[in-house]
Amino acid sequence: xxxxxxxxxxxxxxxxxxxxxxxxxxxxxxxxxxxxxxxxxxxxxxxxxxxxxxxxxxxxxxxxxxxxxxxxxxxxxxxxxxxxxxxxxxxxxxxxxxxxxxxxxxxxxxxxxxxxxxxxxxxxxxxxxxxxxxxxxxxxxxxxxxxxxxxxxxxxxxxxxxxxxxxxxxxxxxxxxxxxxxxxxxxxxxxxxxxxxxxxxxxxxxxxxxxxxxxxxxxxxxxxxxxxxxxxxxxxxxxxxxxxxxxxxxxxxxxxxxxxxxxxxxxxxxxxxxxxxxxxxxxxxxxxxxxxxxxxxxxxxxxxxxx
Amino acid sequence: xxxxxxxxxxxxxxxxxxxxxxxxxxxxxxxxxxxxxxxxxxxxxxxxxxxxxxxxxxxxxxxxxxxxxxxxxxxxxxxxxxxxxxxxxxxxxxxxxxxxxxxxxxxxxxxxxxxxxxxxxxxxxxxxxxxxxxxxxxxxxxxxxxxxxxxxxxxxxxxxxxxxxxxxxxxxxxxxxxxxxxxxxxxxxxxxxxxxxxxxxxxxxxxxxxxxxxxxxxxxxxxxxxxxxxxxxxxxxxxxxxxxxxxxxxxxxxxxxxxxxxxxxxxxxxxxxxxxxxxxxxxxxxxxxxxxxxxxxxxxxxxxxxxxxxxxxxxxxxxxxxxxxxxxxxxxxxxxxxxxxxxxxxxxxxxxxxxxxxxxxxxxxxxxxxxxxxxxxxxxxxxxxxxxxxxxxxxxxxxxxxxxxxxxxxxxxxxxxxxxxxxxxxxxxxxxxxxxxxxxxxxxxxxxxxxxxxxxxxxxxxxxxxxxxxxxxxxxxxxxxxxxxxxxxxxxxxxxxxxxxxxxxxxxxxxxxxxxxxxxxxxxxxxxxxxxxxxxxxx
Lengths: 307, 539
Description:
The complex is a heterodimer of chains A (307) and B (539).
Chain A: H1 2-29, H2 45-55, H3 61-73, H4 86-121, H5 126-140, H6 143-157, H7 175-201, H8 204-211, H9 216-245, H10 248-253, H11 259-268, H12 272-300
Chain B: H1 2-23, E1 34-39, H2 54-63, E2 68-70, E3 77-79, E4 82-86, E5 92-97, H3 111-122, H4 140-143, E6 158-160, E7 165-169, H5 177-180, H6 191-195, H7 197-202, E8 210-216, E9 220-225, E10 239-244, H8 248-257, E11 262-263, H9 274-277, E12 282-294, H10 305-316, H11 320-326, E13 332-334, H12 344-347, H13 362-371, E14 380-385, H14 391-406, E15 412-417, H15 420-428, E16 436-441, H16 447-455, H17 469-480, H18 484-501, E17 505-516, E18 520-521, E19 537-538
Parallel strand pairs in B: 1-10, 14-15
Antiparallel strand pairs in B: 2-3, 4-5, 5-7, 6-7, 8-9, 9-10, 11-17, 12-16, 12-17, 13-17, 18-19
Helix pairs in contact in B: 10-13, 13-14, 16-17, 16-18, 17-18
């Protein structure tokens, strides 16, 4: 197990270097970021040249990348155009997005798995059909429609929530945005769990457990659910990274100043340092989440062991 | 049983969370006499000489007062900190600062506060994006050379002659110079700015009616009324909280829900309902912004006498009235000259100066374009940045209008560029091959500002590199003219040169729009489309 973890960690290095290089090249291909800094008018050439020197944009790209990576390993992610350190932006943005992601994942787990178990055990019944239809609707409606609709209904029409999230972005405020963010994944979790449960329901070990006279709840939770969760855990694990990066739409609708907001702002202003910095961290999150999923397998099913 | 308890707990937690969020509603940032307003994250550090967009300008407008201030209604430049500005020859100016003014940290405003600030702004080593505002002052070419190292630390044209007096010597005659001094780049700065720059940037200190109580970059700024403000325009509310919104749709929704008091940019998609939604609490007033189509004169194909006819024909093929009515719902007005209505007739605005060239006339348009040899390259591609605003909609509408006039549905197409930065980049590198979207937001309400930076040979915003000796001569003469009406008349003559060559096609004047909650009264937008915050009354 230890060797497996080390090998996985080593594999992360080329992925990390490669993905940051790609992002770096992509942002740079768009041209000179200084040009957008002066509004509708052209920056005067002397100031533009000086700014380029200051941000290191006058050097060839490979050299910029090398300097950048060198700095990243010392914890320096550079400076955004408004004079703020990118690490400072991260320290305000990531906690908010992590909270949002936690809310989304929790909702996925609680609602998704519950619905999945309920429908999986009652296949073909009205509950099952209803939930299937519901998840179909959720999957087919784009997130921004769900978001705007909930915002309008709950925020403006009924006045249950604030339509926008305050800068503090507490857990309570993030429940509705979290639900919107989680909605599509939630539907998938429900369907995955449902299928898995329905499949395993007929297996021998469940029959044995029932025959032993175990209470129904114990059969479902300890025997059936535990074995049915493997595909679900895989999905949720990879979803963590996707949710954090994909929060752009939700964060924009509910005015949440998280990672999505900073990334959007960074791309609009073509701020290489911000974009590359944030994406770098997101890549790391993705890699770690994947690693954790693989490790969780072993916990769920002791038969799954790697080298 | 454990499963049941856990599930129940989760449901309760969610319900409690929703309730808490619901109870927490109702403008947590407001308060007695304090209004909340939508804001965008300023693009640059908040320094007067480094702020060139509306969001940062909004704050500077609240915390700073300069030598002059533009009347929020008429746009006329009026003395604020300036007691007197004298000049014998439109080139040498003696400026006397009023006594009794202070920065909100208690430090008095002196002649030095201005001279130091201007020298800071002009100096190349400080990378200030508004440095070119000091380009009129003698010695600018040494402090801020176009290339090579800086050769002087301070502007030779500035001299402090007393605690409250200083002199300015310009590089050439410029009679409207005093009227430009209301622009925020000319604001005075306290010593604290120079002694502890980082601290000042995290919480700027100025001499205006408000002081900053707290500033969380990227999310909110709390400003409160500064009780010690000596000026004639103190705040009539207790304070303003600016909240950063990533999307003005959300800000608008928040106003509807009663969580925000003021949104100063009503999103285009909401214009249809804004009248009934806000029950008349909606403002739509002209601002000093003109949208045009500019042309790449560095491309020889666009710099012929035939192309001049094509440009005039193109202008006639655009149905401005229909586009402003359907797409912008009356928040823009078809342009009939190259300035803005906010200047007023005395200031040089002349409705109809463009004449028939700005009237929709598809028949003549087609004839002129054909006489001129058709569009260079066969097809007209209008470049714009697709990342913000409603540029895509109106460019498509313009092309539609042109195609209809020419009876050819492939004559004109939009040419989107991904980001604003890339768009500006291509313009700066002279890569444009056809007309491109151009927008001019005035720096100060002067006809000079609508013409010289845009059309004078090699001027700072002459992106199309248009050049015309007759125009340049008229502008020079106008700047040297001391009597204001005569100067304005000369600028209008220069504008006619722009018209006769159709150097750029004027499209429409842009309005500022705002919506506000029932708590507020006396809400107005100034000619820069910024709310006049100090006049707003709460409750």
